[in-house]
């Protein structure tokens, strides 16, 4: 079968690899759409998080947010049948076919006909966004700041807006992505490349200083760090900005992963009573909820899909996904 194989940083090659053969209880999916995730980019740029790829003889096949069609089952498989349109998760979907292990077959979700394969492939990142929002448990009267408007940050905006009427402030370096945030329901946006977003947000919400530890405090109830820190980053990190922004006893939800370790002032966390919450992936219930949000029309993921490439052009697809001014979500279409 055809596949896009990762060989090392900035080196993804179109190759022929063996087509999976099924054992009892397994199912084979013909992949119709697979998104390039931010975690895939960490691997593509720097060779980080190699465990997120499926090993092959020559390298690793990335890709874990995808959808397709059941083309074969073997043995006693009762939950799906050949011809079903489906989505699920697993490592190695930058390929024509994906084999689902028996323990994962029950997690395969059926797709209604009105949802495209590309839309369905965005249900996994939406579930990641939804998990972060559920940790924050926002309410209508709150003010929330989402820092980083990639697919996860934009999904956070969508999930918040689907669940409540809280005021949403979005921050990014890309005007394209900030425009999308507004389209999806953000009330205010700031481009951190042109203005001091922390100061602007503090002016907008009101701010003061706490005693004992020099710690600014605003009326922001929760800050979502959807940016992290690239390996070549220098300056004040988004996490530090989030800790300085949030109100006393507020929440900082960290959804991003980091390519380098950061130093932060832990006394600010203590003095402000901040709930610092790490948000990793999602629960099965949240994955199902994210798909329901798409299929019911509570969120519209179509505007986020900006580019589609064949597997033959996977290298160009990954380079395009790196360009925040040009792309939001890049799909591979085997």
Structural class: alpha/beta
Question: In total, how many domains does the architecture comprise?
Answer: 2
CATH topology of the largest domain: Rossmann fold
Helicity level: 25-40%
Using the CA coordinates, give the radius of gyration.
Answer: 21 Å
What spatial form do the alpha-carbon principal axes imply?
A: globular
> Largest sheet at a glance?
7 strands, mixed
Q: Please give the oligomerization state of what you see.
A: single chain
Number of strands: 19
Q: What is the name of the CATH class of the largest domain?
A: Alpha Beta
The CATH architecture of the largest domain would be: 3-Layer(aba) Sandwich
> Tally the helices: what do you get?
10
> What is the overall pLDDT average?
95
What would CATH call the homologous superfamily of the largest domain? Answer: NAD(P)-binding Rossmann-like Domain
Encode the helix/strand succession as letters: EEEHEEEEEEHHEHEHEHEEEHEHEHEHE
Instruction: Tell me the fraction of residues in β-strands, as a range.
Output: 25-35%
| End-to-end C-alpha gap | 10 Å
Indicate the low-confidence ranges by residue numbers: none
Feature tags:
334 residues, alpha/beta, Quinone Oxidoreductase, Chain A, domain 1, Rossmann fold, six-stranded parallel beta sheet, 10 helices, 28% helix, globular
Fold and architecture overview:
The chain contains 10 helices and 19 strands. The chain has 334 residues and is an alpha/beta fold. The chain has 2 domains: 153 residues, Medium-chain alcohol dehydrogenases, catalytic domain (Quinone Oxidoreductase, Chain A, domain 1), CATH 3.90.180; 154 residues, Rossmann fold (3-Layer(aba) Sandwich), CATH 3.40.50.720. The strands form 4 sheets. Strands 3, 6, 7, 8, 9, 18 and 19 form a 7-stranded mixed β-sheet that branches. Strands 12-11-10-15-16-17 form a 6-stranded parallel β-sheet, sandwiched between helices. A 4-stranded antiparallel β-sheet has the order 2-1-5-4, covered by helices on one side. β11, α5 and β12 form a beta-alpha-beta unit. α3 packs across α4, α3 packs across α9 and α4 packs parallel to α5. The chain is globular and about 65 Å long. It starts with a strand and ends with a strand. The model has no long low-confidence stretch (mean pLDDT 95).
């Amino acid at each position: 079968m055809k596949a896009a194989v990762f060989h090392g940083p900035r080196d993804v090659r179109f190759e022929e690899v063996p087509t999976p053969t099924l054992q009892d209880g397994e199912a084979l999916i013909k992949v119709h759409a697979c998104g390039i995730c931010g975690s895939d980019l960490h691997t593509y740029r720097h060779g980080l998080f190699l465990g997120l790829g499926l090993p092959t003889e020559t390298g690793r096949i990335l890709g874990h947010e995808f959808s397709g069609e059941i083309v074969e089952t073997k043995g006693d498989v009762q939950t799906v049948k050949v011809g079903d349109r489906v989505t699920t998760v697993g490592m190695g979907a930058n390929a024509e076919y994906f084999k689902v292990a028996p323990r994962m077959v029950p997690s395969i979700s059926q797709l209604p006909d009105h949802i495209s394969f590309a839309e369905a492939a965005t249900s996994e990142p939406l579930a990641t966004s939804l998990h972060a929002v559920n940790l924050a448990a926002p309410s209508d009267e709150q003010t929330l700041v989402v820092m980083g408007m990639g697919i996860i940050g934009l999904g956070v905006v969508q999930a918040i807006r689907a669940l409540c009427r809280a005021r949403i402030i979005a921050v990014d370096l890309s005007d394209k992505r900030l425009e999308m945030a507004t389209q999806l329901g953000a009330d205010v946006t700031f481009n951190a490349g042109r203005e001091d977003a922390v100061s602007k947000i503090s002016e907008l919400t009101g701010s003061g200083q706490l005693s004992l530890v020099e710690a600014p405090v605003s009326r922001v109830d929760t800050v979502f760090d959807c940016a992290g820190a690239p390996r070549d980053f220098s300056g004040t990190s988004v996490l530090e900005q989030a800790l300085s922004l949030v109100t006393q006893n507020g929440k900082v939800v960290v959804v991003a992963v980091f390519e380098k370790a950061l130093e932060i002032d832990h006394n600010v966390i203590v003095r402000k009573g901040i709930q610092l919450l790490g948000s990793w992936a999602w629960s099965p219930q949240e994955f199902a909820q994210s798909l329901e949000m798409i299929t019911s029309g509570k969120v519209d993921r179509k505007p986020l899909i900006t580019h589609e490439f064949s597997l033959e052009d996977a290298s160009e697809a990954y380079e395009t996904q790196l360009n925040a001014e040009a792309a939001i979500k890049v799909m591979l279409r085997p």
